[in-house]
Structure formats: C-alpha cells, structure tokens
C-alpha cells in the first residue's frame, strides 16, 4: 500500500474511532423520556425496599454491623447517583417536571436515611426508625411511579 | 467401600462447586423480577450441564483428551482458534467477576477497601493452589460451598406458596424481552463453558480411565443435580422476599438478605461464607480453565499435578490470567455487571465448546463401546439446538433490555 493510502486508512480509522467515542460519550446525556424517568423512580423504590431489609436486620439485632454498614453505604451511593442523574437530565416532557423534583427529593431522603444506618449499624433503635422512614420513602416513590404511568387516583 | 466413599466425596465436591457468581446473581435477580416463573429454566440449564459434563468427563477418561484438545482435533486450527479466543475472553471476564465477588464478600465481613481485597483474595488463591494438591483444592472449595445449603433451609423456613412454586417448574413463555433475557441468563449461567473445560481437564489431572466412568456419571448427574437444587432454592427465597416489595438485587451482598431474614446473623454469616467458597472455587476453576485451554491448544505441558517446573508455561499463563483478572476487577466496573456480560457473552461461545464434545462423544470409531447411547445422543442434540437458538438471541436481547436493565 502507498504512503497516501496508508494515511487515508489511518485517518478513516481515526474518524471511525472518534465517531464511536462521541457516540459512546454522548450516550445517556440526552433528554430523559417519561419511561426513563419512570424506571429511575422505580429503582429508587427498589433501593428503599432493599434498605428496609438491611435496616430490619439492624432493628432485630439480627445482622453483622460491618455488613449493615457496607450495604447501607453501597445503597446510599446508588441513591446519590440516581438523584444526580435525575437532577441533571433534561426532560423530554415538561409536564413531568413536578414528578422529577419529587423524585430527586425522595432520592435525597433515601440517601440520608441510609447514611444514618451507615453511621449506626449496631443501634437497634436507629434501625427501627430508618426502616420505618424508608418504607415511607418507598411509598412516595411508588406514588410518583403511579402518577407517571397514569395510575394515580 | 473405599470406592463408594470416593464417589460420595466427588459428588459432595461437585455440589458445593456448582454455583458461581453468575448463578448467584442471575438466579437471585430472576426470582426478584419474575418470582417463581423461571424455575423451569434453572432445571433446563442444570440438566444441560450434567449432560455435557458427563460427556466431556467420559471422553477425557476414555481417550485421555480434555475438551480443548478435542475442539482443536475436531474443528481444526482456524475454528479452534476462534473458540480459543472466545472462551479465553469469557473466562477472563469470569475470573475478574469471581475475584470481584471475593472482594465484595470480604468487604461485607470486614469493612475494609474493596480494592485491597481483590489483591489479597487473589494472593490467598495462589497460596491455596501452591499448598494443596488438585483434589484438595476441589474439596476445599466444594465442601466449604456446602454451607450454602442454608438457602434450602431458608426455603422451608419461609414456607412459600408451594402451588405457585410447583407452577414455576412448568415452562412458560412470556413475550417480554426482559423475561427472555433472563431465560438466556439463567440457562447460560448453568452452562458456563469453563465448567466443562475444567471438569474434563480435572479428569486428566486425577488420572481417570474407563474404570472411573461410573464415578463420572454419578458426579455429573448427582453432583450437578443436587447443585441445581441450590440454584432453585436461590430463585425461591428471592422470589418470596424480594418480588413482593419490588427489590431489584444489584449487589452480591443482597443475595444473603433472605438468609438473614430467616436465621438472623447466623444465617447471614453462613450465606456469606458459602458465597465466598463458591466464588473462590469458581475463580480457581475459571482461571485454570483459561490456562488449560491455552496450553492444550498450543501443545504445552499442562497440569497442576506436574507443578511449575514440569509445566512452566501453563503455570505462568495461570498467573497472568489471575493478574489480568485483578486488573479488570480493579477497573471500577461493578463485578455484578462484569458477571452479566460474561454470562451473556458465554452463550455465544457455547456452540463452539459443546459441538465438538457432542461429536466426539458420539463417534464410535473414537469412543468404541463408550460412545453416546441413545439417551445421551438425544439429550445432547436437543440441548445443542437450544444452545444455538439462545446463542443467536443473546446479544440482541442484551441490547434490547439495556443489559437486563429493562
């Protein structure tokens, strides 16, 4: 192959690479559809459910403190990440703005509760309170999902 | 009496060594999302691995040739190389996922940084491999994994709706792509290619011959069969506890929650201990499988029984695979995500692994009176058809469901 030919192949390969990189980096940065918002809030509900089970172990003195602490930390980080994702995205449908704000608030609430569990993984009283409040947070998340899917009363 | 004891010990090791991080993750998620609806897929996968493990063990015992030798012999260099590249990529991802799994469990037990445990976990594996003989390694992880029977005890403690559980064993086809994705995932997690690579090479390591064929059959049928019971139990406990409250398990630690719910701290510790032995054993199996394949394909001396002096390239490649696994596990990608990708991509490599085994095991000129009988041949071809369909569907389903994210 000639030098020019090699250069052309190289520049096309570079172009392809850059296009692929642009596509990959832009993935997830687009507008948030109603479905994606719905899924985000559903995953918050799932996190709250998981947190309740961990907190229940603490409340019953039926767990190991390190396990409760690490699980609370991991779930809390996921809630933070979900909150950032929901807060940063642009909505495809402007009329769901209220639900988005409510979802960010629920994510922050779940994160704060899990942070409390992380701080007191051996305290039964805290475990009981966190479990109760996480159940309330899950109800709020479920209510947002119902609104988004048009099932709300 | 000695023979019966040996067979029993082999079966016990197979039961404990059956589950890996792929089974733990996919079965728990399947239960959480679809309650008991995917139990039939677990049974389908368990029978499949028993059928092919029996065949690969039989071929190894009769011919002295492990699976990758057979692949190269039957498919030639070109297709053999494709199979080698595909299975090495999947095995490497599996090693990384299992090392990540070890680190997660140690982090949950000791609350120190995950990255530290990836390295210390790998060092512990190297020490175990250096100190124990081949059979000892299998038994160490196999017997340790048996504490996961706490999952079966949890099923009885939960006392689920047994009618609904029984209904889950009847195959049903939901049209949702997520359901189909999990059918592929649960089935593939049971049939990971490294399992037969390791099983057949292990038969050579332990010096099996025609005399061990009964042992091979019982190990494959009872060992994998009872191991499948653990998988079924994981789906049930997850379906019972997680499904009603909408929990989507995204972390290995979540797998232990039902046992904590049933038996408190003791249940939790038994579950975490069992998971640790299972993922530790699978890290050894998958890293060994990667170096077995490479050595057998390139015609190197291989085998744990030969030691580093007689099989230096095999030993060095094993250490390299372990180091690469550490690097991937340290990259910051969640081991559960690595697991999902390794399981789904493994489906694509399945036909290249299982077709040569099926052809050789049925070849009377090669296996003489030990060739596949009618039942083994029928099951083998039926399963191969299922494998081909799933391997074609795996990647489209992975993309359509956003990696199982729905």
> What is the highest CATH level, the class of chain B?
Mainly Alpha
Give the amount of beta strand of chain B, in percent. Answer: under 5%
Radius of gyration of chain A: 22 Å
Question: What coarse outline of chain B follows from CA principal-axis ratios?
Answer: globular
Q: How would you name the CATH homologous superfamily of chain B?
A: Amino acid/polyamine transporter I
Mean pLDDT of chain A: 82
What Rg of chain B, in angstroms, do the CA atoms define?
A: 20 Å
Please mark out the parts of chain B with pLDDT under 50 across 5 or more consecutive residues, or reply none. Answer: none
Work out the largest interface and the residue count of each chain.
Answer: A-B, 27 and 27 residues
Number of domains in the coordinates of chain A?
Answer: 2
H and E string of chain B: HHHHHHHHHHHHHHHHH
Span of the ends, CA to CA of chain B: 53 Å
Commentary on this structure:
The complex is a heterodimer of chains A (153) and B (406). Chain A folds into two domains: 1-30; 31-151. Chain A is 80% helix and 0% strand. Chain A has five helices and no strands. In chain A, helix 2 runs antiparallel to helix 3 (65-88). The model of chain A is unreliable at 1-29 (pLDDT under 50). Chain B is an all-alpha fold. Chain B has a single domain (2-400), classed as Amino acid/polyamine transporter I, CATH 1.20.1740.10. Chain B has 17 helices and no strands. The N and C termini of chain B lie far apart (53 Å). The mean pLDDT of chain B is 90. The A-B interface holds A 39, 42-43, 45-46, 49-50, 52-54, 56-57, 60-64, 66-67, 69-71, 74-75, 78, 138, 142 and B 107-111, 241-242, 245-251, 253-254, 256-257, 260-261, 264-265, 268-269, 272, 405-406.
């Amino acid at each position: 192959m000639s030098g020019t030919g090699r250069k052309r192949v190289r520049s096309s390969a570079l172009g392809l690479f850059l296009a692929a990189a642009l596509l990959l980096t832009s993935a997830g940065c687009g507008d948030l559809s109603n479905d994606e918002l719905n899924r985000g809030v559903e995953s918050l509900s799932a996190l709250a459910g998981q947190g309740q089970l961990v907190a229940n172990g603490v409340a019953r003195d039926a767990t190991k403190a390190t396990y409760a602490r690490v699980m609370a930390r991991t779930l809390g980080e996921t809630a933070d990440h979900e909150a950032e994702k929901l807060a940063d995205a642009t909505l495809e449908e402007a009329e769901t703005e209220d639900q988005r704000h409510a979802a960010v608030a629920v994510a922050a609430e779940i994160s704060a509760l899990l942070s409390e569990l992380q701080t007191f993984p051996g305290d039964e009283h805290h475990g009981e309170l966190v479990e109760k409040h996480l159940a309330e947070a899950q109800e709020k998340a479920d209510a947002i999902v119902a609104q988004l899917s048009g099932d709300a009363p | 009496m000695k023979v019966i004891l040996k067979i029993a010990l082999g079966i016990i090791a197979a039961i404990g060594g059956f589950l890996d991080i792929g089974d733990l993750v996919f079965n728990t998620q399947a239960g959480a999302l679809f309650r008991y609806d995917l139990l039939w897929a677990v049974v389908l996968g368990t029978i499949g691995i028993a059928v092919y493990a029996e065949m690969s063990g039989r071929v190894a015992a009769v011919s002295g040739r492990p699976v990758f030798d057979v692949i190269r012999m039957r498919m030639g260099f070109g297709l053999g190389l494709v199979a080698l590249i595909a299975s090495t990529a999947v095995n490497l991802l599996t090693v990384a996922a299992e090392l990540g799994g070890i680190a997660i469990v140690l982090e949950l037990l000791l609350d120190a940084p995950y990255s530290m445990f990836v390295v210390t976990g790998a060092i512990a594996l190297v020490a175990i491999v250096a100190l124990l003989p081949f059979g000892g390694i299998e038994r160490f992880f196999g017997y340790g994994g048996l504490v996961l029977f706490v999952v079966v005890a949890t099923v009885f403690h939960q006392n689920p709706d047994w009618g609904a559980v029984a209904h889950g064993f009847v195959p049903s086809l939901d049209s949702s792509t997520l359901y189909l994705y999990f059918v592929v995932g649960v089935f593939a997690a049971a049939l990971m290619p490294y399992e037969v690579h390791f099983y057949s090479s292990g038969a050579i390591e332990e010096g099996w011959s025609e005399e061990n064929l009964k042992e091979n059959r019982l190990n494959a049928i009872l060992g994998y069969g009872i191991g499948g019971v653990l998988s079924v139990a994981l789906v049930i406990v997850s379906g019972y506890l997680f499904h009603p409250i909408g929990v989507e398990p995204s972390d290995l630690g979540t797998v232990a929650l039902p046992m904590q719910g049933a038996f408190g701290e003791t249940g939790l510790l038994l579950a975490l201990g069992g998971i640790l032995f299972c993922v530790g054993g699978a890290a050894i199996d998958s890293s060994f499988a990667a170096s077995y394949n490479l050595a057998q394909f390139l015609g190197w001396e291989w085998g744990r029984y030969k030691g580093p002096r007689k099989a230096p390239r095999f030993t060095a490649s094993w250490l390299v695979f372990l180091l690469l696994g550490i690097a991937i596990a340290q990259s910051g990608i969640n081991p559960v995500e690595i697991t999902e990708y390794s399981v789904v991509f493994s489906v694509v490599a399945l036909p290249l692994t299982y077709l040569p085994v099926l052809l050789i095991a049925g070849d009377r000129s090669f296996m003489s009176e030990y060739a596949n009988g009618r039942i083994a041949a029928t099951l083998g071809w039926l399963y191969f058809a299922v494998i081909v369909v799933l391997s074609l569907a795996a990647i489209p389903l992975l993309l359509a469901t956003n990696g199982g994210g729905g």
